[in-house]
Fold each of these.
Amino acid sequence: MSAVRTVLVCEAQVPFVYGGAERHVRALVAELRRQGYRAKKVSIPFKPYPKGELLTQVALWRLVDLSEANYEPVDLVIATKFPTYFVRHPNKVTWLFHQYRGIYELCGTAFSEFSHAEGDVRLRDRLITLDTEALAESKRLFSNARNPATRLAKYNGLVAEPLYHPPPLAGALEPGPFGDYALSVGRLELNKRVDLIIRAMALTDPSVRLVIAGHGADRPRLDALVSTLDLRDRVTFTGDVSDRELVDLYANALAVVYPPFDEDYGYVTLEAFLARKPIVTTTDAGGPLEFVEEGVNGLVADPVPAALAAAIARLANDRPFARRLGEAGFERAARVTWTGVVERLVGNQLR
């Protein structure tokens, strides 16, 4: 096969939503260009509801043939999350950020609209079968962490190689003083469990505040919870912030609290470490546990408010300990680089 020169990176994006996957795609395109490839992002809006719309989304991507662009051959297509890997191309590589988790391990939980009712089971089985067939078309199959690779093996019988990369803010993050607030970063969705942090704040010393950076569909519920717990003077919602503002928030935080349920990767962990801040996470957080070591570079608590509160209090009461954890986190995150990532994805050297 001739050397790869032109690369298209596929993205499915919910309009007005900009999270880890979107940052991931942009960072990959930028790195491909930096290494000399002609790279471009291809995006189709994503709408997952009502449930039957998921099949429509699959069909939309299946109709897309990216083998050529303006009568020129496209050498390589890199698919990312569901349903981009349904795209048609003879040299398709998948770097799996995540599948549609509501039909996998989240089915039947509060984090999924899928139950074990007959209609849901039929639709779920159909989508999993289609997933398996499309992903098996990949010339090479990678995941962005061990968690999605494990899921892929369990449900689809496919093997993916975990391929780690640094977060998009890696070059901008910087250390700062250990301030008076715990920081939460990310989309406000049920599976991010920001409500767990808010409930923990009600059990911590009033001198510790919480800053929540991000937006999402769970914001009204979280607002109501803050009011119910009478925490209006201690909890701040920033909404979306610029990269510069987010760098400052990381730099001046006491710690970053990140308790998602079974996260696939989670930029937040590495971003916190690169800002030399400790992470407080939970025993069921998934991806963050690939990087966080209890008492070494962060604290791992049971997923209950009292345990999170105790971890936050421990850091607030011992700033030298928090600093030591943050420095150890930096050493861990600094080992995650782009070196070799593009070479593994592309499969050859540009000539």
Amino acid sequence: MSEKKITYSEAYSELQELVSEIEAGEISVDELSGKVKRAALLIRICKEKLTSTQEDVNQILKELEGEEGN
């Protein structure tokens, strides 16, 4: 998967596959560094998406609280 915009679900699914491969010892030492770098990128993508979603939800809740106060 290239660095195009991927969804949280796609990133999380790929990350799970990578972790399974690493845990099962299915990755050669030559491939390990690249797989770990890809996993780090996927973790960063997931974290950014979760943070963004949390901020959006918090903003919506603030707006709703403001409407209730009127």
Amino acid sequence: MYRNETRVRVRYKDTDAMGIAYYANYFVWFEIGRTEWMRALGLPYRDLEKSGLFLPVIKASCEYRSSARYDDELTVVTLLESLRAVRISFLYEIRCGERLLARGSTEHAFVDERGRPVALRKKNPFLWRKLCQVLEGRSGN
């Protein structure tokens, strides 16, 4: 299964007075990981949106294991979990070196410009096939 690793650094503005990363930043880092996962597959979000396809988050979760601190270099590991007609789900791990900081997931709907659900297979058959190949382990990456 295709996985992407993206590096991010904890900025001063991401932390509290004790130098610990604020919990909501993990969802920002998930977004960075997901965006880079798509880009690495040759499917940048910008191109999807230009074609009238949007992926709003409809569910998100995070399980925290350890704290990220100011100036830590983090690795966001992103995997495609599932693909359904109008939904897609991703899994994430955030690590600092070998230390697991958090695990999480997001689920997204495929919608059009008006926010109405669309069947990806019909709206964008190329993307549907590409994502199916990733799930089957044939992405070539």
Amino acid sequence: MSVFLDPKEQIEIIKDNVDDIVPEEELLFKLEKSFNSKKPLNIKAGFDPTSADLHLGHTLLIKKLKVFQELGHKISFLIGDFTARIGDPTGRDKTRPPLDEDKIKENSLTYEKQIFKILNKKNVDILYNSNWFNKFDLKEIINLSSYGNVARILERDDFKKRHKSGDSITLTEFIYPLLQAYDSVHIDSDIELGGSDQRFNILLGRQIQKAFKKGQQVAIFLPILEGLDGKLKMSKSYNNYIGIDENPNDIFGKIMSISDNLMERYIDILYPEKRDYFNDIDNPLIKKKQLACELINDYNDESAAKKALENFDKTFSKKDFPDDIKLVEIKLLNKTIIDLIEELTQNSLTRSEIKRLIKSKSIQLNDNRNFELDFIPLKNETYNIKIGKRKFYKAIFN
């Protein structure tokens, strides 16, 4: 496809799986102008590198970028390495702690690699907003701040709740939407994509572009994908996400852990074009396995999907321990099982969670689930360790 496709045909393709377009008539006007001038539109989507993983929620935006890319338009993939230092306050009930700059840089590099699991490299500009915000002086910050309205910002549900409950809202969080809006000014975006929770920030971009005497971007809002809990939006912060660069076995296990209702939701949002195919599968277990295979195939390959399926069937259907778990060596030093599990899982479980799992017999050491909280493993003994239903480790304590 290309910009030579009729604008009305383009807009029908673009509208698929979209919550809202503001304003839709302006999108058609921009597409017509692009068609007549043979000049591609500049499509913006911003991602703050607050974690190392792009997850399935992000893929909704990136897949829509791919649609624009295939229509011949230019993609501005904006990595908010500067704004990540503040943290997007959208939907948050408390201030996000600042991120270490080295971690932001590390995460940004993984984003660069992962987006090309979906996009091709043609007509994609990867931009970092530190390139312009690091040069901002106090005068420019004050000028930009003059376009913000504190009353309007406090009308946002997230800020309103925090303000009413007396929770802290920092001035930098007030500035965040203005910085995101200024990104659109700097790169001259014609269209910005975002989740429906980004409505305030993206529409502010239109306002700030107008104040700077720029053309106003069209805002396109996509659905929010719920996380593994089926309640909160998918996010690394909520630890309810599936990263597209995760181990295929982990992706498979996470999909198999979700409810049947959430599985249907994922199919509707992630694979609307394959809805009829999935509808023909009556057995929810088989349907869930197929969804897992589709995802792994998309972000790895068919052989990885097949291997993950085989591993799942072997591990969960036959109750076997996986063959490919890496052996970890941990110093015993009279540590109890709680200390050792905490170290083994790299502090992803709290001590109270570990105690609860031991008491409920949800931690298995080889074939043993019955041990006390002060249990100390044997020295130089290799243990196959299963935590819950789908976390496997192999450790030797010396």
